[in-house]
Structures are given as C-alpha cells and as structure tokens.
C-alpha cells in the first residue's frame, strides 16, 4: 500500500485554498495553516469581485495557463455546487499603438481566442458607459467573467476539508525549516510538524516566511472604491467588467448587487506596506483624487463620490510575473507568490500546478518563465 505524501500548505487564501483542494483530491495528506481563516479580508482576496479574462495584456505564456484556469473554475463549481464565476464578457481598452495592446491583439488572434475588436463608434453604440479617447481600441473578450473571491476561497478550502484535508485556522507559521534528512519542519506556536513538502502561498507575508527569495516581492496597499451610476440605465444591455491599459491603468467591475461599480488602480498608485500586520485600512479623502479624474475622463455617468472605499494588500514583483516553482536549492519547498494584482483568475490552475510540483516534482504546464530564480521551475 502506497503511503500518501504529506504536504503542508502555508496560507489558505487565494492560491493556498486551491492548492489544498487539488492536493487532497490527488491523494496527498494535506495540512493547511492560515494566520486567519479562508475568505478573510486582510490579504488580496477581498472586495467581492475579481475579473476572469482569456485575453492577456503582456506575456502570451499566460494564455495556456488561463485556459487551464478556465477549466478548473468549472470543475470547482461542479464539485462544490456553488456559483463562483459568472460569464459576462470583459472589455480591455488601451492605446492601439501601445506594445501591450498590439501584443494582446496578436496573441488573441494567434490563439484563436473568442474576442471582438471594437472601434470608438461601436464601443459608444454598445457600451455607452465608456468613453474611448482618440487612438484607443477596445477588445471584447467573450470568455470574460466576474469571480466572487471570498466565496471562491471558502469553497475551495471547504472542499479540501470535505476530502480529508486538515486546516489549522488562526495559526501563524513562524518558520519553515528544511529538515536534514529531507522534508520540511513547519513551526507554529502550537509546536512543530514534519512534512514531505511545503507549498508556501503566504501572500503579503511571503517575505517574512521566505526572506531569502531570489526575486523580491514588494507588498503594496491597494485601494478600491465603489460608485453608483447617475443614470438609471447604466447597466442596461449588459455592463461587463473592464480593464484600461496604459496610460490609465485601472479596472472596473459592476457589483454583484447591480447597484454600484467597483474601481481599482494599478501598481503605480499603490503605497508600500512595510509590515503586513499594520496595514493602514483607513482611506482618506485625498486618495479619491485619481478616481475622480478617471471617472470624469472615461466614465462620466458614474457619481465621483463613492459609497465605499477599502484598502487591501497585494504582492508585486519587478517584472510583474509571479514566482512559481521550487525554491532554489530546496526541492521540498514550493513557492507561489507575487502575483502582482493579476493572480486570482489563475488560482485554480496554480492549485493544480502546486499539486504537480509537490507530488510529481515537475509539471507539464508551461511555467518556466515564472520560476523563482528565473530558470526552469522543475
């Protein structure tokens, strides 16, 4: 009889909950740890909505990973019986001549993604909520969707527990120590566990747990705001989530309640977070300025005065690409960190890849470009 591999998952949030689900589904003995509990609002998974899109701004290597994520989202919903993702389409807008938009259009055609290019007049006709500046193009990603992040994290973690995983809630991991004879020691205030492999998905706390990462993760404070349209028909005819590329660098998601629109900004607007346990969660009036500018220029039918503003944390790398793979020099430690504001849509794919790496030592999915040391991940 084969003895199941014992795997620890450190952090049961966006990536960790999915990794727990896939690991236990594939026969591992799974022990999860979280300093809070799945679905908490202290990391990057808060705010009630995230965007799934098949088209990608940047590295085309993400496209097959997004295809895997698309399939795994459907599998998670089928297993849990929960509605976690709603197909809505997604608009991606940016300067037509910019490298990012040119690459997006080229990759979308090469990979035969279900998309449509809209010029300024067509966008105005079909989606009058938006203004498109001269020289800009809109792309409608028909596979786009709205994800419920908190519900997704809780659903994946609950499914993992149903399948036999054990999760230690409100249990911060203090140290992750490679064992001399192989495996890893997981040290908490309650004692020490020994496992064969550790999957570290600690979000904003990654630098504390793995201080020797070869590529740094910059933790930033992310502010989102929610605005009510001034026109009663703003949502009429469909109002998909959207991403605005350079120079605007923002996104928006109609709220699940159909009343407001959530807006968020890119990395350049986020303040550093020196200590994750001391995140400043108070949003001040002066932080509203950039939101008001964007609304006035691009979405004038939204009320610039928000009904809500909230602060969260996300980890960024210099390249914008996450760190996914074995920690260099440590075959028994796998890291997934620094998803740079773009990871939630990929999370079930990352759960499957974590299971590959922990149980098989390698994966057939194309993640070499995400390796923590910038080399092959397996």
What does this entry look like structurally?
The chain has 378 residues and is an alpha+beta fold. The chain has 2 domains: 6-46 and 150-211 and 319-370, FAD/NAD(P)-binding domain (3-Layer(bba) Sandwich); 88-145 and 218-316, D-Amino Acid Oxidase, Chain A, domain 2 (2-Layer Sandwich). It is built from 8 helices and 21 strands. The protein has helices at 14-25, 62-80, 99-110, 120-126, 149-162, 206-209, 289-298, 347-360; strands spanning 6-10, 29-33, 50-52, 85-87, 90-95, 115-118, 136-141, 145-147, 166-168, 173-178, 184-188, 191-195, 197-200, 218-227, 242-244, 250-254, 261-265, 271-272, 308-316, 323-326, 333-337. Strands 5, 6, 7, 14, 15, 16, 17, 18 and 19 form a 9-stranded mixed beta sheet that branches. Strands 9-2-1-13-21-20 form a 6-stranded mixed beta sheet, covered by helices on one side. A 3-stranded antiparallel beta sheet has the order 3-8-4, with helices on one face. Strand 20 and strand 21 (333-337) form a beta hairpin. Helix 1 (14-25) runs parallel beside helix 5 (149-162), helix 1 packs across helix 8 and helix 2 (62-80) packs across helix 8 (347-360). The longest helix has 19 residues, at 62-80. The radius of gyration is 21 Å and the shape is globular. The model has no long low-confidence stretch (mean pLDDT 93).
């Amino acid at each position: 009889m084969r003895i199941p591999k014992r795997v620890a998952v450190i952090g049961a949030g966006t990536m960790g909950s999915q990794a727990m689900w896939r690991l236990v589904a594939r026969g591992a003995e799974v022990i999860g740890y979280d300093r809070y509990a799945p679905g908490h609002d202290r990391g990057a998974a808060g705010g009630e909505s995230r965007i799934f899109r098949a088209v990608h701004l940047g590295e085309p290597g993400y496209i097959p990973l997004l295809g895997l994520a698309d399939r795994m989202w459907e599998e998670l919903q089928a297993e849990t019986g929960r509605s976690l993702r709603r197909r809505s389409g997604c608009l991606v807008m940016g300067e037509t001549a910019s490298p990012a938009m040119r690459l997006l259009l080229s990759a979308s055609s090469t990979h035969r993604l279900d998309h449509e290019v809209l010029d300024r007049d067509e966008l105005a006709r079909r989606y009058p909520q938006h203004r498109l500046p001269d020289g800009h193009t809109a792309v409608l990603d028909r596979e786009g969707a709205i994800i419920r992040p908190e519900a997704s994290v809780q659903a994946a973690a609950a499914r993992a527990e149903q399948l036999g995983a054990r999760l230690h809630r409100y249990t911060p991991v203090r140290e992750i120590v490679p064992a001399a004879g192989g495996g890893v020691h997981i040290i908490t205030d309650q004692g020490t566990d020994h496992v064969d492999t550790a999957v570290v998905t600690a979000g904003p706390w990654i630098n504390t747990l793995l201080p020797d990462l070869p590529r740094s993760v910059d933790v930033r404070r992310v502010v989102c705001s929610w605005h009510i349209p001034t026109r009663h028909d703003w949502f009429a005819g469909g109002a998909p989530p959207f991403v605005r590329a350079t120079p605007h660098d923002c996104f928006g998601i109609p709220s699940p309640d159909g009343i407001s629109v959530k807006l968020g900004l890119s990395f350049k607007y986020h303040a550093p977070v020196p200590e994750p346990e001391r995140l400043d969660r108070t949003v001040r009036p002066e932080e509203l300025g950039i939101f008001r500018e964007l609304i006035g220029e691009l979405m004038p039918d939204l009320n610039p005065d928000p009904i809500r503003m909230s602060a969260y944390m996300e980890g960024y790398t210099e390249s914008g690409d996450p760190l996914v793979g074995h920690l260099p020099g440590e075959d028994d430690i796998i890291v997934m960190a620094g998803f740079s504001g773009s990871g939630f849509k990929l999370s079930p794919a990352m759960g499957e890849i974590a299971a590959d790496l922990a149980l098989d030592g390698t994966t057939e999915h194309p993640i070499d470009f995400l390796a923590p040391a910038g080399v092959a991940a397996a």
